[in-house]
Amino acid sequence: MRYPYIIILLIPLLLSWQAIHGSKAGRTASGLNQLEHVIIQENFKTHIQNLLKAQAQVDFLSIWSKDLGQGQLVLTFSYLEQLGASNSQLTGQALLIRQDFNTWKLEDVYLSDQQITFTQDVLIEVSKLSEKPESSDTTDATSIDELGN
User: Fold this and answer.
1) What is the pLDDT of residue 76?
2) Is residue 68 part of a domain?
3) pLDDT tens, residue by residue, 83-94
4) 87: domain CATH number?
5) 34 lies in some domain
6) Residues in a beta bridge with 75
7) Are the CB atoms for 62 and 68 separated by under 8 Å?
8) What is the per-residue pLDDT for 142?
């Protein structure tokens, strides 16, 4: 006899939960669901890759978004630029402001860290740095010192 009471209690409970939370399920403070976050991230990646493709090959290492509410979204990203013999890893954040229901404006982009690694060895020869530079002047530092003695 207690099973019918449980069912009678659960039905209004489930219906009220669905009425309150059903339309907002999976949405963040600005009303975005997970799929919309992914679409914004992919569009941002494509935009950056198209912007830099003439200069370097760009591979995104990570990107994620955080909803700040009040129509603001922050993208945090890390990508690798391949410029010939060197790779440059950059991390940063981008602030997006909601313009209307389906449009976000890229307000600011901040790059916070940069690390450059070389794919080929870079050799710096000390002997070339310590050589006396050739001067076209007739008077140089050593000749002035010698005159003073």
Assistant:
1) 93
2) yes
3) 878 888 889 998
4) 3.10.450
5) yes
6) 65, 94
7) no
8) 43
